[in-house]
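Example complex used in Figure S2.
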Amino acid sequence: MKNVTKYLLTGFFALCIWGLFLADMLVPTRAFSELENRPLAQVPAFSARALFQNAYTLKYEEYVNDQFVGRDSWITLKSLGESALGKLENNGVIYGKQNQLFEEASTLDDRQLNKNVGYIQEFIQQYSNRNIALTIIPNSYAILEELLPEGLPVIDQKGIIQEQYARFAGEPVVICDITPTMLGHKDEYIYYRTDHHWTTQGAYLAYREYMEILGRKPVSLDQLSAHEVGDFYGTYYSKAKKWDAVPDVITWYDVETNGVTIDGKAVEGLYDHSMWEQRDKYKAFLHGNNGLMVIESGEEGAQGRILVFKDSYGNSLVPFLVKNFKEVHVVDLRYFNDVASLLEENSYDAIWVLYNFSSLATDQNLYKLVH
Amino acid sequence: MVFSSILFLFRFMPIAFGIYYLTPRRYKNAVLFVVSLIFYSWGEVRYLPIMIASTVVDYVASLGIERRRAKGFRGRGYLALSLCFNLGSLGFFKYSGFLAENLNALLGLNIPVLALTLPLGISFYTFQTMSYTIDVYREDVKAEHNFINFGAYVTLFPQLIAGPIVRYSDVARELKERTHTLEGVGKGIQTFIMGLGSKVLIANNIGSLWTRVSAMDFATVSTPLAWLGIMAFALQIYFDFSGYSLMAIGLGKMLGFEFPQNFNYPYISKSITEFWRRWHMTLGSWFREYVYIPLGGNRKGAARQYFNILVVWATTGLWHGASWNFVLWGLYFALFLCIEKAFLLKKLEKSRVLSHVYLLVLVLISWALFAITDFALLGQFFTRLFGGYAGSDWIYYLRNYGITFILGFLFSTPILRKVRDKLGENHLLVTVFCAVVFLMSVAYLVDSTYNPFLYFRF
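Predicted assembly (829 residues):
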């Protein structure tokens, strides 16, 4: 017995080193990681040039890491280790109470935020008679404060949003401040636990608020037929890979359309139903993020035309607008460049600039509103 | 390449060790030489010629010294060649930019500052090879005639990039005849795993706290958080550095070499004097052997001794990086070493609690000098450390890093070694513990978001 334990560690180590090395050689490479929701590095092409620029060795190392045998299990093991160490975060994602995940936000670089809000101001002044509304969608950490770990340093996002709204005092714009409403419903399922987006229920609250401002009658949720898709592990999960995360449920509603085009090409309906089966289920809404989407409503009583400038948060909200407006134009400035012609060629009953706070603080495309 | 990577563990190790063990004894050094060159130039091919040049120059210089000596000369010219080459390349790559910046600032000149990447481990291997030619010159060792053996010594991959600084005399015998036993390999594996765990599980985990604090606007940091931050840095640099040394020593054992110990639980010291006998021991003994004693050490009177201490510590500081804060860091230690030498040491050795508090506070302050290269920021950080600023920002970080801190404090003491010695080094519990540490380290390396290499400035 004594002799066995004497060489046990050596045997174990040798087995690990050579065994995993061989297994690593034999296991086929994967193109995509479902767990991390990202493409994995592949074998780099060798060239003397790449070698001397140190690009080859760097890429080779990435490839070895990404394709390491049992990668997903190792990641889960690390996540278990983090829990054992009592860590309250992993890879920039904070573990809140009741399985709620949050993004880390202890500091804010407000240069891009101030710039972007400046572009919106310019846009409003330029189109002062176009009935423009602005909404900044708060992040989950600003609304679900009680679920944050105690003592977590976090920026005062609600305060910053109010400061930004205050910059529009006296300007021809309707501020549709949804923060109080969101706070009033903070005990409901308005943000995903494992994803940075709001849920369809959260989006509905913003829609209702805006319709009331416009004097239109918001559709009531129980008049709609709902569908649920479970087992949704969102972007926070992909970063933190928390081993005991609780998956989310996505709700989507039937809305009639008479034709939908994306950048001029016809697509079927508001949802890409194939995405419900995929990892990144949120991409089903509006077929993901696209430049210009034009939706012809098939709903009875829908009238008028609205233009929405949005980030991905808007994707789960737009279906509600199709209930009220005969025509809904949806622009994602990341993929769309010609705002001036769009506004010249179309008359709109309402224009809604709808951005999440984090996008507004980081997006580099809002200048396209005015240039 | 660094030890703490999947690439090293599951590509380099199986291949290099596989070839090494299968090769007949007489060719083992050749294998070592070749795999070490691959290890070194992985990630920076352009520095391969520097490494080879360094090997050739010191090989030629030592043979030259021997030949001149046979003719009744001392071989000074060859020694100078070796010193000039080693100090010259170190000076060129590490200090030329620093020198140019200071001359520009001081004299209003406009010397262009070259943006050079420091060749990996240059501060370590230049010191190693210099020790060899100096020892040959002093007739402490015989010159190595076999180029392959010498090449294997210079490039020996375990100790090449982050120490310990292995002197030729430490391994001269093993280079020629060493034995490889399964038992030795087993011990090596245990040491290697402890080093890997120190680096990956403790240093990286606690280090991310200091990285965060140092990225904050110091004007908003509370006093408790400032102390937490600097304690995190102290644990990070200790476990990172001693972890690398342990990995090196372990790999050395697996190859049949005995490298000198480099860290001996420095944080349990009772004085700065003791701390430096326990911290980076091979660097300390290098400076003692090749700078302090040649300067006269303590044999030329008290005043000269204090001066010698000052010189040794200013250069030790500068060795850690080309920046004034490192010089200040070295001089800071020189000051306390002199004070202790003058009267304090005897009192410290008698005290049981206060001396530990004294040592830890002084060392933490030294790490602030070490970690913050910008003097304005350093000043700001010190006002936060000692200004008594209240705040609640530390609560979250204490909760998040609390257990890691406790593990760090615990493993800074010899507790693990004592348990192992009590159980016996092949006890099943020891084996299981090592296996778990190894598997967890691999898991953390696979999903690593923070795995810095701290010695790029060294």
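The radius of gyration of chain A is 24 Å. Residues 76 and 243 of chain A are 6 Å apart (CA to CA).
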